[in-house]
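[09:14] KT: can someone run the structure on this one? pasting the chain below
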Amino acid sequence: MNQYPMTAKGAEMLRVELNELKSVRRPAIIQSIAEAREHGDLKENAEYHAAREQQSFCEGRIQDIEGKLSNAQVIDVTKMPNTGKVIFGTTVTIFNVSTEEETTYKIVGDDEADIKNNLISVNSPIARGLIGKEVDDVVNITTPSGTVEYEISAVEYV
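[09:31] RB: done, structure tokens below
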């Protein structure tokens, strides 16, 4: 049984989505199927087939979320002492030595990752390279464009 690491915020977002799917989306799809059935011949009824396909996607997503939540390992770094080490859930500020750019990332679970909001998956190359390191450590991370040297400027447990 696989454990899915997830932040408290990520787990809450999945619970909200699950509630939306079960209480709003599922009943709407059932209503669409009922209305489409009333139109007669189901073999050539595009509305019926589209509604059934939506139902399939919705049920699949519900099962996916329920599975992840049941196997979730919720990690709340705000309740942990700040040891200065980079761990799952920490916010890390890194300095690119060659371009002199500073970037801040939060290391989160796969479902929460959103690079536009600087949320990176714990399984990403950058996160894997940073885990276990501390402030002022220099890390070489292999990226698609080559190896990049970073210095860790800050580690926050927020």
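[09:33] KT: thanks! The radius of gyration is 22 Å.
[09:34] RB: yep, looked fine to me
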